[in-house]
Amino acid sequence: MTDQQATAPDWSRFHGAMVSGTMQGEILSACERAWAWLELPAEDCARRIEDTIHSDVAARWQLQALPFVRHRLMHEAGIHPNDNAPRAALSDSVATGQASAAELELSRHLNATLAIDRLVTERFPDAVLPPASSDGQREALLGRTPALTEAMHACDVARATPQGLARLQAAIAVLDAAGSQAQGDIAREQAWWLGLAWWAAGRAALELGQQGAGRQAYEHAVAHYTQAADTQAAEDCRERLRDLAARRTGDFDTAAGRELSALLLRRDPLGRARALCRLVRETLATGDRFEAARLAEQAALVLAEAGYPDPESDFDKAAQQWVDSACPTCTGSALIAQLCEIAQHWAAILGARASQRMQDDPAASEHAELVLRRISPWAGELLNQADAAEQATAQRFALWCPPQTQPLPERHPAAPLPQGMVTLDMLDDSLAELRSACNERADPAQVDEARALRASAQQAGARIHVVRAWLEEAYVLLALQRPAEAAEASQQALDCLLAGAKPALSAFATGFERELYLTAISYQARAFMATQDSAAIIALCEPVIRDLEGERLRVSSPYQQSAFLATRTELYEAVAAAAYRTQRLDLLLEISELLKARAALRSRLAPSTPSENGDLDAELRACNAGLLAATPESDQERSLRERRRWLFSARAIRRAGDGQVMPPISVAALQAVLTPQEAAITWFWLGTATLIVLALTADRTRHMVVKLDANQQARLADYLACIHALAEAQPRYGTLIPAMDALIAEIGPVLLPQAARDLLDGKTRLILCPHRQLHLFAFHAVLHDGSPLGATYAIRYTPSLSSLFVPWRGDGQEAVLLVGVRQFDDPALPELPEAEQEALTVAALHGPNGRALTGATKAQFLAQALPSLRCLHLATHGSSVLTGAAADDPLDCALHLRDAAVSGWELTGLHLPAELVVLATCHSAQRAIAGRGLDSLPGDDLFGLPATLCEAGVHQLLGALWSAQDNAARTIVSEFHRAYARGAEADVALRDALHAYLANASHPREAFFWAPFTLTAFSRRV
């Protein structure tokens, strides 16, 4: 709905609810009741009292109203209520029979009020009148709240200025001083307004970088809200103080864990919405826009079901419904508090939507932003209407108690949007337009425009907008290839943002300030990169990376840990490139390793036992069981899926503990763990077209840069498209099989250059550590000296070279379990004719240690003694992590048993410290390389079936990169087990199996048939 079409809101219900429950509102109602009873016979009046007044509280209000009724009777008779002489004369006149008709009527009415007093007191003897509040005090409070609300409105979020904060602090001081002698209800009402004002001041101070003032303001707010008996608002401020402490240390786990606990315990809708919206804020702080948007939509659904609908389609209609839903359950200041909280919730939701849509749907992002901008003026008008309701109530109250003080000054409600806020909105728009214009074509005139916008921001006192203007200037200067000036503009942005504080993430209490800080560092790093100033890059970025890594240790939920680096990998890449240029190989290796599967490997350093997470694991199992029985797409299924996510994240946070820090890595340390027969090769992407390749043996190193030209980039993309196409329901094998061979032959030697392969002479084993999309590349199919690497060398892939420092100590298990499923209850899953025979054959190879389980159901599989296994083999169907729901939620990948699937969600709950798991299933070695709104996973984290088995404690995984062809797979897997059962290590057994397969001329030699199988090691055997 456009502004021209907007309908005027109906505030009448809000006004009524504001009055209801307040002292004036209750007394007004009681006065009007008593006034109607004055003409009733005594018997009727008694019945009315019996029908109307049912509690001591109601009785007290009625008793307190009677003096006001008498006040009005005397006032209308022309008798001053405080003048005793006319009252005595009236009594004499009535007693002597000389009273006029008017005097008799007045006397009768006065006696009726006394009768009402007696009847109420007889029925409710414990009803004791509270001390009367001063009408003058209330009028003084009413007279000063408009200035306070206008000052709060001018300090709205993202629009605070020093002048606005000073104005608000002055309004607070005036109200505080004026009400220092207030008592009773007036004191509580004033305390609530002061709590609200200090809350707004705290938010504004933090936005201006005044952390000490912000903390102090929230502490004042807690004290005043407590005095006002608004426990929810007081707790909200305490929560903000805790969040502020957590934000300074980047402690996502503590903040998110608290909200997850609330979600798991809370049942009331608004409590859940509150926890969800706080979790949205924390999740956005980690950079996970995808998860924040998902949580936001869940919060939106909870709010809509509670009667607070989505404002995106029709803001005016939704806002009216918010008021109508809150009024029946809240009154007075509690009503304002609830509606303000609803507005904050929707602001968080719309902010998450705008952020998530920014890249894929700019128009939808802009729409969410425009709706978001309407919330603040609406909240300001809410406060204006609260003032108006109290003013109207005071005027009505004057009928019963004409004010003895000076009349209240005429109120002028605050403008819907103060001019300062209009200016800042215009700055926001202009800065966004400048960025868009620069992206289309950089022009020197844009530098002048950025400077003019900065001058406007400085005049408005808007520090954040000044910083943003400096950054836009730096952005334009970088596009114009003027790096020295860009570096200076970035430094100016940093100086303005830090305001004298020490450069560190802990200097900032808000997420947007931290992002501006990192953006300024990134722009400055780009400027140094343009001038090849490697020393300056390292000096600038390395301390920031150390800072980030300290915070990253306190982000344990896997998805958030992955997204934490979404806007920060540029800094890591810049340092890695500078380290390479300056031949600081230890720094290069360390930085590159920081972007490789840290979350999964940290979980291996201090693996938890099932008992440590017993309650959460039990709830997860219950959720999974409930999902099996739930109707697909039902509300029950949706609710259970969400609860499972919360439990999963809560368990990840609980599992994380102090001391789970990866061992330091260096070239010398890595060489020390390599045997003389081993070589290790690691890849690291710089951007999307440049690779650093580092090859090591126990005594030598080789390092090189590979720059892919446009054709080579396209060919790599074609290879990845083949992998995705093989996961489709009906792959075009006739096209894909020859295409894969051609692509591997063409780009394999580029990705694995000769300089690295020269280091392989005399070696028998290879450890390969790819990066990002290269995890799907079959390096073992690349030819070396005329033969595929996989048939010549014992190869194991690893998610990180740091895994070589993560020990795995087998405890002597010998049992081998072979699971084969031929037929499935799900008609969409084709029969696997040889799967059960494969399990029986392989079990026989392992002699008395081998046992086959054929046609297994899910329950039968999960009932096995999995912790006691040396090896687990599954011959069944698997799902790809690259398609369907798993593309954005890798834990939705699954292994299929006869009657149901075991999803990644369930596999993460297993305790499986096996030496080896063999997944003779399609796509089982795939790991996610993108998704959740990201073209690549910034932390190169391990997601998919490999991740779930790594977390379960598995040492090595043999799986398939794409769909496995039955005959070839059965031949290779059988040969593998034959060697493995004889005592060969898994990588050697796979090499021998591949060599035997390729040595048979009758077998197809295309990579599609023999190369899907890869061995991944998550740790080093001790």
Indicate the radius of gyration in whole angstroms. 36 Å
Structural class: alpha/beta
Distance between the termini: 67 Å
Please tell me the overall pLDDT.
86
Question: Percentage of helical residues?
Answer: 55-70%
Task: Categorize the overall geometry.
Answer: elongated
Count the E strands: 17
- Approximately how much beta-strand content do the residues carry? 5-15%
Unreliable spans are: 404-421
Q: Strand order of the main beta sheet, please?
A: 10-9-11-14-15-16
The biggest sheet, with number of strands, parallel, antiparallel or mixed sense and barrel status, is:
6 strands, mixed
The number of helical segments is: 41
InterPro entries: CHAT_dom
Organism: Diaphorobacter limosus
Pfam family, one: CHAT
Protein name: CHAT domain-containing protein
